[in-house]
Amino acid sequence: MTKARKRQLHLGAFFTGAGSNVAAWRHKDTPSDGAVNLRHNIELARIAEDAKFDFAFIADSAYITKSSTPYFLSRFEPLTILSALAAVTDKLGLVGTFTTSFSEPFTTSRQLASLDKLSAGRAGWNAVTSALEDVAKNHSQDKLFSHAERYKIASEYIQIAKGLWDSWEDDAFVRNKESGQYVDLDKLHTLDFKGEYFSVKGPLNMEPSPQGRPILFQAGASEEGRDLAAREADAIFSNSSDPDEARAFYKDVKARAAAYGRNPDELLIFPAITPIIGATPEEAQQKYEQTAAYVDIQLAVKYLSRFFSFFDFSQFPLDEPLPDLGDIGKDSFKSTAEYYKRIAKEENLTLRELALRVATPRGDFVGTAEQIADRIQHLYEIEAVDGFIIYGYVQPEGLRDFAEQVVPILQQRGLFRKEYEGSTLREHLGLSYPVNRHTLARDAKTFQIQGG
């Protein structure tokens, strides 16, 4: 059981090849093939683990076009690279993206349970519903399910995964060489799930890891996404670090978790940020401008189109206010598309302005290490976040600068750990150990028989 402890800031590291800038591969100190460079990913993992980060995070998508931005065109499948990183790290959590719309729950559950066991309890699953229309055509289907139906499928999918991860009680594998007993088969349980979308018999052929089961992350900001996360997730990737918006989101999902009978403290909120650090604010701004210059307008428009199912924006003039985009993007990255449509309308942005803002976001974390630590501390202390995903603007420089300059300040202020306090991702995040449902039922039955 994870023991209670003082609230602590959490940090994850976003591994995305060359960096958050869509043309970061052009930076002189960044491997141009960073997305498929094992040594580069190992270097990032070691930077994160040396700084005592909670986890590394690998995003993914199963569809590209010729108009995709460079680092989407060739990148490692998450399970493969995370398994490799498990072999060269000891404590760092390993979180990967796996779809609930175009994969089988038994396969995904087994893969994640295997990574969890392989890494001694450090695996996490970013459960996504897939938002690009033609992902379906790579999986023998004609079109994407509607946004609402994708979340219904995801809910059933996650229930199955959790059920399969409870196939074996924690102490089922005896492996007693003297008695010859390998396993207690009374502690093996078949799922026999039959739902609207899936039918899965089980049991899973993988025993629990030291953290019981993988940590579940979810990133939906829509009503359906928030509700699913509040009901099932251990952590949420949020999309805002604006204090008012972040606090509103934080309070909303925590309240939803409580309404489901959960402890709100067992649901952690993580926005992604892109720190750019300089000895002075002017130096940090100069770093931003240098990397922003790598992105030309054609690349920026391509990147923007990804959030709208690769909608062809070329029909609009670059330097006139965007027209009303209507329901474009409603079944893609819904909440992100709605956000971009909203700011375009509110600020009367042209296509050029919106595309460059999306492709080269400056954000509020450009400045000195002290300034960035101050902003992190403020958002954490007003309970707008529980932690942050650090997205290096170029890699490895962005992550290394944060690890070497900002993390020590957070440690000095007592906000972030100086050493790992456990070995599993669940322990890093301060989350309770999930008691197997069959063990609970057995204990309840024993309690009744004994007259409790």
From TrEMBL:
<dbReference type="InterPro" id="IPR011251">
    <property type="entry name" value="Luciferase-like_dom"/>
</dbReference>
<comment type="similarity">
    <text>Belongs to the NtaA/SnaA/DszA monooxygenase family.</text>
</comment>
<dbReference type="GO" id="GO:0004497">
    <property type="term" value="F:monooxygenase activity"/>
</dbReference>
<dbReference type="InterPro" id="IPR016215">
    <property type="entry name" value="NTA_MOA"/>
</dbReference>
<keyword id="KW-0560">Oxidoreductase</keyword>
<dbReference type="GO" id="GO:0016705">
    <property type="term" value="F:oxidoreductase activity, acting on paired donors, with incorporation or reduction of molecular oxygen"/>
</dbReference>
<dbReference type="InterPro" id="IPR051260">
    <property type="entry name" value="Diverse_substr_monoxygenases"/>
</dbReference>
<keyword id="KW-0503">Monooxygenase</keyword>
<dbReference type="InterPro" id="IPR036661">
    <property type="entry name" value="Luciferase-like_sf"/>
</dbReference>
<keyword id="KW-0288">FMN</keyword>
<dbReference type="Pfam" id="PF00296">
    <property type="entry name" value="Bac_luciferase"/>
</dbReference>
<feature type="binding site">
    <location>
        <position position="97"/>
    </location>
    <ligand>
        <name>FMN</name>
    </ligand>
</feature>
<feature type="binding site">
    <location>
        <position position="222"/>
    </location>
    <ligand>
        <name>FMN</name>
    </ligand>
</feature>
<protein>
    <submittedName>
        <fullName>LLM class flavin-dependent oxidoreductase</fullName>
    </submittedName>
</protein>
<keyword id="KW-0285">Flavoprotein</keyword>
<feature type="binding site">
    <location>
        <position position="147"/>
    </location>
    <ligand>
        <name>FMN</name>
    </ligand>
</feature>
<feature type="domain" description="Luciferase-like">
    <location>
        <begin position="24"/>
        <end position="381"/>
    </location>
</feature>
<feature type="binding site">
    <location>
        <position position="151"/>
    </location>
    <ligand>
        <name>FMN</name>
    </ligand>
</feature>
<feature type="binding site">
    <location>
        <position position="60"/>
    </location>
    <ligand>
        <name>FMN</name>
    </ligand>
</feature>
